[in-house]
Amino acid sequence: MPLCTLGSSCTIAAGGSLLWQFVALLVVHWIADFVLQTHWQASNKSKNNAALAAHVWTYTGWLALATWFLFGPTWSSVGFVAVNGTLHFTTDWATSRASSILFMEQLDTIQGRDIFRLVLKEKFTLHWFFVVVGFDQLAHQLTLAGTMMIIFGGP
Questions:
Q1: Distance in angstroms (rounded) separating the CA atoms of residues 59 and 34
Q2: What pLDDT score does 9 carry?
Q3: Is 133 helix (H, G, I), strand (E, B) or coil?
Q4: What does the pLDDT read at residue 129?
Q5: Coil, strand or helix: which one is 127?
Q6: Which residue from 46, 61, 128, 144 puts its CA 20 to 30 A from 89's CA?
Q7: What is the DSSP letter of 124?
């Protein structure tokens, strides 16, 4: 019997709530998006769609396992995973290219120069690079929350 169907109240088999299911999805997101992303994927996804696709397939596979455990193997779960996998690709396509440009601009600033002096003079900063990385994560979290709310009725 599925744990969740469209329009029903979804709960973890052990008696959890939608909030805890969302927290579980965030943990899986962190593992799949950071821990399981290979060096090759991280270094190349901004310029190579095969690297980006490999990252997104890994991410989507782990998201599917977690979703089916948390909400049951329903068509709603399939839709949730498909939408999030597609939006993850789209978000990473844009943000990886933006963050790569910002990072490379800073590398051009420091080549052949004393990094400590540049940092002290505030001519070297990764601020906007990290703003983009933070936006990337915000977009992923809002995507997970929004699709969870629409498909499963929460968080």
A1: 9
A2: 47
A3: helix
A4: 79
A5: helix
A6: 128
A7: -
Gap between the Cα atoms of 16 and 41, Å rounded:
35
- Greater pLDDT, 29 or 154: 29
Instruction: Please give the Cα distance from 55 to 132 (Å, whole number).
Output: 18
The arithmetic mean of pLDDT across residues 81-101, rounded, is 93
Q: What is the pTM of this model?
A: 0.78
Q: What's the CA gap between 87 and 127, in Å, rounded?
A: 25
CA distance 86 to 46: 16
pLDDT digit string, tens, across residues 21-76: 999 999 999 999 999 999 999 999 999 999 999 999 999 999 999 999 999 999 99
Q: Where are the domains of the chain?
A: 18-152
What is the distance between the alpha carbons of residues 70 and 14, in angstroms, rounded to a whole number? 10
Please state, as a whole number, how many other Cβ atoms lie within 10 Å of the Cβ of residue 33: 20
- Indicate the residue type of 21: Q
Q: Pick from 13, 11, 147: which is nearest to 82 by CA? A: 147
Question: Among residues 114, 133, 132, which one has the least CA distance to residue 123?
Answer: 114
